[in-house]
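Batch manifest, entry 17 of 40.
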Amino acid sequence: MRKIIILILLIWPNFSVADQGLEITCVNMKSALFGRKYKPLNFKLETTAFHYFDDQKGQFQTIKSSELDTGEDYFTARFKDYELGFQLILFEGEEKPRMTMSKYDFKNNKFLEHYACTAISSYIN
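Output type: structure tokens
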């Protein structure tokens, strides 16, 4: 009997529950407007953290969700020299809002880049 229970436990599928979050991919709007090739930027947003790839450090970095500025239709991640503002915008004539991201240099009070984003709901480990 004991062997049967152990066998069942070994064969029984192991289900792990992951948190649901968003996988966000953003493309520089200059790609569409001017035909330039820019590498898409990838982010992950989950309940506890925002994840991004730091090209200078060559590794993923994490910002706790409690450190993000959040609102009903936006969130902002602040870094040393700039901030990334993600926002859902409903454009005139459209029925579904779009996600955009802007890179803002708060030290010099100017926008640096604008991005069109897609967000896909997924389970994040």
